[in-house]
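Researcher: Good morning. I'm working through a list of sequences from a screen, and I'd like to move beyond sequence-only analysis. For each chain I'm collecting a predicted structure so we can compare shapes side by side. This is the next one on the list. No need for commentary yet; just the structure.
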Amino acid sequence: MKLPSEFESRTLEWMGEDTYRALESALQAEPPVSIRVNRAKCGKELSGEPVPWASSGIYLPRRPSFTFDPLFHAGCYYVQEASSMFVEQVLRTYVTAPVVMLDLCAAPGGKSTHARSLLPEGSLLVANEVMRNRSQVLAENLIKWGDSGVVVTNNDPADFTSLTALFDVVLTDVPCSGEGMFRKDPVAVDEWSVDNVLLCRQRQRRILADVWPALKPGGLLIYSTCTYNKEEDEENVAWIAGELGAEVLKVDVRPEWSITGNMARQDFPVYRFLPHQTKGEGFFLAALRKHETGCDGGTSIGCDDKMKEKRQKGNDVRAVSVPDGVKDWLRQAETFLFETKDSKVTAFPRVRAAEYALLRRSLKILHAGVTLGELKGKNLIPDHSLAMSTLLNKDMFPCAELTYEQAVAYLRKEAVTLDTSVPRGYVLLTFQGVPLGFAKNIGNRANNLYPQEWRIRSGYLPEERSFVW
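Model: Good morning. Structure tokens for this chain:
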């Protein structure tokens, strides 16, 4: 790989000869492969080298056929770059009680699914993506992950400005020049330029300024990029602290992790992952605490009252009549509010109903809570979101275990023939005991209810089956 000459000269100048040459050499090597296991869905033990800063992260010895692994599509694990899993250390250090968290630039969903696994019970995660096509991928990945305490939105950061002091935590993994992805993405190398670095820095500041009012006074901001340069990294952290008003926080790290600190000769803590030192791609993170100033820049007195008033005004989520028995499709049904709207029957955690009502008055929501099913005439067709939910009550549906070949056929949206012992009607299909989705068994075949847009499009089937488990 030929690196841009300007990248080489400017990075060498500020990193120094030894560090840059070691980085340059590492960028010519194959990147490691890592996943994060969904412990809420899969209790199987997985051998492999642990990612030291992530409790469910594992390095794999080689890249398996993720596309053709049914457990991948079932949400049992997420393929995520190891360095970015460091967000776990910030959340474990500073989030100890239920919170409302925003992941502002969330697609494709690695950090969102990770955060949702770590947040205390009773928390709500809002995962947002401004690009429409990417927001659909984000919704898919969070639905597969299976946690109900999630809202997925498709909005510009400026749309959050009016949600004053709503969020306890805001994660901004901002769009950047992508230097840390050079060895995985040749397009990032081709598109790199100094002008783009400076353009990204300004865009990042605009995003931060837009979302800043939505973060509570005293709230936690996690700022991250996948780039190396100080303009988008340390200089932006200094700008947040000085211009927006925040304290840069320390996160404890172990020496053996070989995480690099501040390289811009400034005295605040940051965490930079360089691939010649840490096993992962280039990544940068800083944690900041918003000053205890008020909603409009004054004192913090009155902010909670204003937010409480907004929640009360927006609290239009009510228990609505739903078809008989449908509530039993979820375990812990008493903790949900159920609603029928536009033929969809949904359930949302009761404890966060007021925040949800406020969000849907202001934002474009793609997914929230659990979609249980769709009404068509007298029938309620169970939704794939229900099949993926970790709170699905499997006892409410007959189950049929699929072979590997049947599972792949199902995930391709092909017709599946079930054993004659399987009763007719809606059936939950499983692979190795894990739900894959629903089908309607009509006897000679089963109508496939897997989402059309999620199907495996490749007709290829690997001769050698190399999977995570």
